[in-house]
Amino acid sequence: MKVLSRQRPLPNIFNLYTILTVLLQFAVHFACLVLLVQQAKEYSHLDKVPAEDVSNSTDVGVKEKSFQDDEFQPNIINSGVYIISMALQVANFTINYRGHPFMQNLAENRGMLLSILGSGGVIIALATGFLPGLSSQLEIVDFPPKFQFEVLQLMMGDFALAYLMDRCCLYLFGDGKSRFD
């Protein structure tokens, strides 16, 4: 951008819009993460190495073994969490990117747009098992077809709901003033 905007940015970050959009987006992302773990647990019986119950992780045995001593065992839960975590990060960058009047919009910022589209494409490919070589390098297990569909639905739902929360907050409180005043 070569010309300064007449519109000024918000005077500080502690305003109703910023606080509400951060909290609401966090709530959406956290709910999706919890939902994914619950869905993945339904399929965990298909894992070659079952996920261990960590509810008694504070029990002391004769030979105490710390969490760091365990070798990583890929399973449907940690693979799903890894994929949804990447999707949440891409959604955060996309939703919270502000274009005009202070920066280029996303369509004009070719590098950012290609990064988001490329990352999103890789995430979808990993969730659907389209890149088995990369999946094995990242130690992501194959998902059953029904779970693949559930993960894709969850990623799209998370993006749509977080976007809606942000845009509602922007409409109601975006200029530093409430629309209710």
TrEMBL record:
It is a multi-pass membrane protein. GO terms for molecular function: ATP binding; ATPase-coupled monoatomic cation transmembrane transporter activity; metal ion binding; P-type ion transporter activity. It comes from the Eukaryota. It is found in: Membrane. GO terms for cellular component: endoplasmic reticulum membrane. The chain crosses the membrane at residues 12-37, 76-99, 111-131. Signal peptide: none annotated. This is Uncharacterized protein.
